[in-house]
Design a protein that fits this description.
By secondary structure, the chain is mainly alpha-helical. It has ten helices and three strands; from the N terminus they run H-H-E-H-H-H-H-H-E-E-H-H-H. The protein has a three-stranded mixed sheet, covered by helices on one side. Helix 3 runs parallel beside helix 9 and helix 5 packs across helix 6.
C-alpha cells in the first residue's frame, strides 16, 4: 500500500536537493576557475537553435586563448565598453542599476545594467530570457563566481565565451575570423571594435563596421585611455571608481 510521505520527509528531501544543488554548482564553478570551459550554455543554445531552424550552413567557432596569449587591449576594451567599475564591485553595480531605474522613471527605455560578472554567469551556465527564475539563477552564479574566481579569471573567461559574431565565440575565434591575426596582436582599435558589437553581435559586425560601430569603437578607445590603459585591469586601478 502506498503511503504519502510526511511533510517532515518532504522537507528533508527538499533540503537534501538544495544542499546537493549548491555543492554541485559550486564544484563546477571551482573547477572552471582552473580548467577552460569546453563550451557554454549559450553556445549549446545557439547550436540547438540552428539545428531546429534548419540553418544547415551554421558553424560554431570557439577557440580558448589564455590570458597570457591575449592582448591586454581586449579585456580593457570590454571593461571600458561594458563595465567600467568592474575592478571595484563584487558582481553587481548598484549605482548602474539605480541610474537605469531613474532613467526608466523619466520615461526612457529600461536598459540593462549587467556587469561582466553577471554576463559571464549567464553565458556560461544559463539561457536567454527575462524570467525571474533566470535572473535569480544569474545572481546565484554571479555570487559563486565572485567568491571563487579572481577578477582576472572572470575577464579571461568572459572574453573567451562572449559571442562576438554569428557563431563566433571568444577572442580566439574572432581575431582570426575578423582581423586575420592572433589574439596577442590585436590593436586597441581592433579590440574596441570587438567590444563595440556587444551586446548585439549578430546585428553589428566588427569586420564590416557600420557608422554606429565606428562611433562606439572610437568612444571605447577614448574610455580606454581615460581609464589609464591596461594597468586598469592589471591591478593598478585608482582608489575611486570612474563616475
Amino acid at each position: 500500500m502506498f503511503h504519502r510521505p510526511s511533510l517532515k520527509t518532504l522537507l528533508r528531501w527538499l533540503a537534501l536537493f538544495v544542499a546537493g544543488w549548491i555543492a554541485l554548482s559550486w564544484l563546477a564553478v571551482l573547477l572552471l576557475r582552473f580548467v577552460p570551459p569546453l563550451t557554454s550554455a549559450m553556445m549549446l543554445e545557439r547550436q540547438v537553435g540552428a539545428w531546429l531552424h534548419g540553418e544547415k550552413d551554421f558553424t560554431l567557432h570557439y577557440h580558448w586563448v589564455s590570458w597570457e596569449k591575449t592582448s591586454r587591449q581586449v579585456p580593457l576594451a570590454m571593461v571600458a565598453g561594458e563595465d567600467q567599475r568592474f575592478p571595484y564591485h563584487h558582481g553587481f553595480d548598484f549605482d548602474a542599476i539605480q541610474t537605469a531605474l531613474d532613467a526608466h522613471d523619466d520615461g526612457k527605455r529600461l536598459r540593462g545594467a549587467s556587469t561582466i560578472s553577471q554576463q559571464t554567469a549567464k553565458n556560461l551556465f544559463l539561457w536567454n530570457g527575462r524570467s525571474f527564475v533566470r535572473k535569480g539563477l544569474e545572481a546565484y552564479f554571479t555570487v559563486l563566481i565572485e567568491l571563487t574566481w579572481p577578477k582576472q579569471r572572470i575577464l579571461e573567461v568572459y572574453m573567451n565565451i562572449a559571442e562576438l559574431g554569428n557563431g563566433i565565440y571568444g577572442v580566439g575565434a574572432a581575431s582570426t575570423a575578423f582581423f586575420h591575426v592572433t589574439p596577442a596582436r590585436l590593436s586597441a582599435a581592433q579590440s574596441a571594435r570587438l567590444a563595440a558589437v556587444l551586446p548585439s553581435p549578430r546585428r553589428l559586425h566588427a569586420d564590416r563596421p557600420s557608422a554606429y560601430v565606428l562611433r562606439r569603437a572610437q568612444w571605447i578607445q577614448q574610455q580606454m585611455r581615460q581609464l589609464g590603459g591596461p594597468g586598469y585591469i592589471d591591478g593598478d586601478a585608482p582608489e575611486r571608481p570612474p563616475h
